Amino acid sequence: MKKILLLFLCLFCAKFPVFGQITDIEKTAFLRLQERLAPLHQPVKRQENDWLSQITTDPKQPFEVFCKENLIKIDASKSVIYIQPIGKFNKHQRKILKELDKYLAVFFGMKVVSFKEISDDFIPAKDRRKMVSEQLRTTYLLYDYLLPKIPKDAAAFIAFTEKDLYPQDSWAYVFGQASLSHKIGVWSMYRFGNPKTSQKVYDNCQLLAFKTATHEIGHIFGIQHCQMFHCNMNGSMNLDDLALRPTYFCPDCQSKISWRLDLQMRPQFEKLERYWHKIDNPTETEFYKSQKEKTY
Ligand SMILES: [Zn+2]
Ligand SMILES: [Zn+2]
Question: Per-residue pLDDT averaged across 59-74, rounded?
């Protein structure tokens, strides 16, 4: 009888999404962790004409509100982040894309699969325009290209382009755009500099790609722009905002990811510490080491 009940429960769980109302015990544990991590973080940083001064309508989304808004959990062990590179990347950009796969797999504790690079020829003339360089319309890539092809086990399906992007005619450009309800996103490395120019430009381009990718996937997983801390989920209106934005999530946004993806913070921080050490970035390595030490 027990076996039949267990089988029934397994079938039920496999067929339907897992809903996760946060319990009081979980809430207390997260709040305790947030308190411990907070001294390593700073309040949101401001600069002239930044995203906060221009976007006044972004709703505030504390951890508890996030948990109520995102009841369906994502099983990180069974889900995949799919990436579709679109365009003609040079070999340095390709190298960054490859590294990005590794970084995202560590950051979200999830399998990352990159599809073969494809040409952007399929994008119709009405969804591209000539400015200083050619730009591609995000809404076409999101809703006409990605949405009908989304794989069943995708937690996120992303297009990455080397050409510049625009969401609608009145906008000059966007770095990227994501749909929280459809698990899809698109972003571009066009404005990050040509990584073949020098090692310095290469490193910066890679860092900006890391920041943008984790930020947009953060949106896909339900996180709104963060207005509490200096955080990867802060908005950005321009390259200055993006340069200022850190790679890491603040205690509040980290809790959102850890809760929704069922990831323990300590092993996550440990893996990230090892990753940054491997690619020889002492600042990030030290930061994650300090975070890890706070999670005893
Ligand atoms: Zn954003
Ligand atoms: Zn945050």
Answer: 84
pLDDT tens digit sequence for 120-168: 999 999 999 998 899 999 999 999 999 999 999 999 999 999 999 999 9
The structural domains of the chain, with segments of one domain joined by +, span 43-293
Measured in Å, residue 66 CA sits from the centre of ligand 2 at: 12
Closest ligand, as measured to the CA of 250 = 2
Mean pLDDT of the 213-237 span: 91
Point out the ligand nearest to the CA of residue 235: 1
Distance 144 CA to ligand 1 centre (A): 21
* Centroid of ligand 1 to alpha carbon of 224 (angstroms): 7
Tell me how far the alpha carbon of residue 177 lies from the centroid of ligand 1, in angstroms: 8
The DSSP output letter for 147 is G
9 band by pLDDT with thresholds 50, 70 and 90 = very low
Q: Which ligand is nearest to the CA of 218?
A: 1
Ligand approaching nearest to the C-alpha of 248: 2
Q: Give distance in angstroms: CA of 150 to centre of ligand 1.
A: 21
Ligand number nearest to the C-alpha of 226: 2
For residue 179, pLDDT over 70 is answered with yes
The class (CATH top level) of 43-293 is alpha beta
